[in-house]
Amino acid sequence: MQLLATNPSALQILWFALVCVLWIGYLVLEGFDYGVAMLIPFLGKTEKEKRVIVNTIGPVWDGNQVWLLTAGGATFAAFPGWYATLFSGLYLPLFLILVGLIIRGVSFEYRAKNPDTRWRNTFDWMASIGSFIVALVFGVGFANFIIGLPVVTATGNASLYVLDGKPYFWQLFSPFGLLGGIVLVVLFLFHGSIYLALKTKGTVHDKAAAFAQKVGLGAIAGGAIYLIWFQIAYSAGVLGWLLLVLAAVGLVGAWWFVRAGREGLAFICSAAATAFVAVMIFVRMFPNMGFNSAKVTTPLDITVAASSESTLVLMTVAAVIFVPIVLTYTAWNYKVFSKRLGTVNMPDEELAKA
Amino acid sequence: MNAETIARWQFGITTVYHFFFVPVTLALSIITAILQTLWYRSGDLKFLKLTKFYGKLFLINFAMGVVTGIVQEFQFGMNWSEYSRFVGDIFGAPLALEALLAFFLESTFIGMWIFGWDRLPKKLHLTALWLAAIGTNLSAIFILAANAWMQNPVGAVYDPVLNRAHMTDFAAVVLNPVAIVTFTHVIASAWMTVGGLIVAVSGWHLAKLPQAKKPRAGDAAAHRWATRFGAIVLLVAGLVVIITGDFQGKIMTSVQPMKMAAAEALYTTEGGNGTCANFSVLTIGSLDGKTPAQPIISVPCVLSFLATGDFNGKVEGITDLTKAYDGGALITPTNALQTSTADTLKAKIAALKADPNSGWDWSPNIPTSYWTFRIMMGLGFLAMAIGAYVLWVLRKGATPKDTGLWRAMLWVAPLAPLFGISFGWIFTEVGRQPWIVNGVLPTASAVSPGVSAIEVLITCVGYTLLYGLLAVVELGLFNKYVRLGLPVVEEPKVLTDDDAPLSFAY
């Protein structure tokens, strides 16, 4: 931990925690739809199986993605200094993420609109590869927040921090950074296959459950190496060890329950594990937000990056009113589409060839 | 080219492209909800067919709006990091609120509507669509308030300790007069576009149906109703666009006089003291915009009225404004942020003037401002003329003939307002130059210093290629579903058997 430029206010700490909450919402919710989308070409052998897989996330993926947009918007509003330095600093990785999000987003909506096999295969691979890219790059990114991105001030503007290295790109792919990318992909595959098993019946369910048991072992092993390396080399303190144990229990529990056919409990466990890892990373990122300020006199931390108290008050009021409302209708959405889907539920298609 | 120039091109390309889909989403979401409400109220299957047909076109368009919108939120930080840092205290809040209040609502309920035909009772299913449409339109309030703040930065002061803007009054930001007129202008122009789209799609089917081998019963009635509805929407929305545009002109003259002068290529101040400024319809000028243009057609005193609401009002010219700003005059002397930034801004501008590469100029590109302003208006009037003509052709139950002229007009009906909107945005954003925040922060000072020109170029080429490819896919799908025509529909029922096929799935 570094010394703070000044003591953070309660609102600054609150908003750092809220940004963490938004990231948890994103990783837990969209994490599984990345996993599901990555699996479309691998678990879906017949057209109806593929359609079952797509339909499990069809009604929810767009809402899940808004957690990322809200995390980005909240970072901009509550910590403009963080948003400015991070988004311009990780320029090319963010471009890759945007490309991934674009190609997977159109895939879900467009695959159904033409029965041609080549058309559908193209979009299935775009959904799969797009989801893989986003998960991989975010995994590399978070590992680098744990390591600490080195900052300096911009030439002629002492108020603006930039990453030390122009561009800062190849430096991201250290062994720990790469491991972070792979572990996040595997974690999402595990989380996503559990969701798929939970939401389906018949052949798709059986394949998803069998895959979850296999990939679960990889998630447990990879997660253990990553988290222990994280604690030993970069340390999130005593709290970090506690969170590490909780995350490990979550992963092992998820694997155990999916083997026992208790998919609901398995999903809760993999969601909790994802959340604990996110909290652990944010504990490490407090208060320097994942930047390493060794080369500057005033460190870039939450006090320097934060908006004014009046903006934070406004945002807090909005969050207190609207976050519960959002959670309520999101939960209702999941309830409406809670029934398991199987190939028997897929209607025959009567799309006329145009 | 330097990073700033490419970053500006990137913003222009990605934003104009994103805004091809936004107007259709804004208005078609509400119109689809209206169609479904008409079906819910009357039970007339004509309206259910129209709901499903236009709903499908809406969704094909909506997907593109969603995916291209993510780039918009990210690129402020990526390309304009000093801007983001400097204005985040004010500009960030509308973006965060847009996501929290609007995007969640829109995305969650659109999913519920698409997949909910046999999961939700009719009334709840209709409510889901209305909530999605409301979410969509709420997002416009926030993003336009954010843009309006860049044109007229109210509700803020400069904080010299942190060297950035500080929000003093959020209500002032949301109730910014520029935001209010811009919102109505943008929403009305979106309705024009969708009115034109419905005229085009249903008008095309209406003229084709008499030649069809096996015309389905009721299709002609549905398309006739829709074509007339679209034409009326186009005309009424067009009137609102004219009225709100007139308000915008007057506010623009007061908060951005240079933009008004550029829109008119008016170099010397005209009007006031019993004389008036003429509105030029066409001119010949030099392409670099450095010398006054020669008017070919001009309408006496109209510019004075457009700009000030008084036929003898004074409109300031580019040369006179430049002289005043060089002498230290503020653009809006009553603006707290402009006043409090003035001292630090002087140093920034002195540095830009000393840099031969910056090409500092107090005025925007004049030919671009002049022509985009006129093309915008011309396209709007053209669309309205087509709307009126379509109503005349359809009078007393007449059916249009499938002629080349009819088809040509149907192409123009949606595309004229759509491109009119693009030209309007190019005008309003180019016309704000050299400022990213009017009178507060020059665009040249706002760009990310840590990002090299080559990185901006790579992403700019990347977005352009990807967007070009997606345009082919989306237009192909749009065309396919337009031609398929109205679907066969049956009364939706809530499914109770867990093993029954769904009535709708991807």
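Chain B has 14 helices and six strands.
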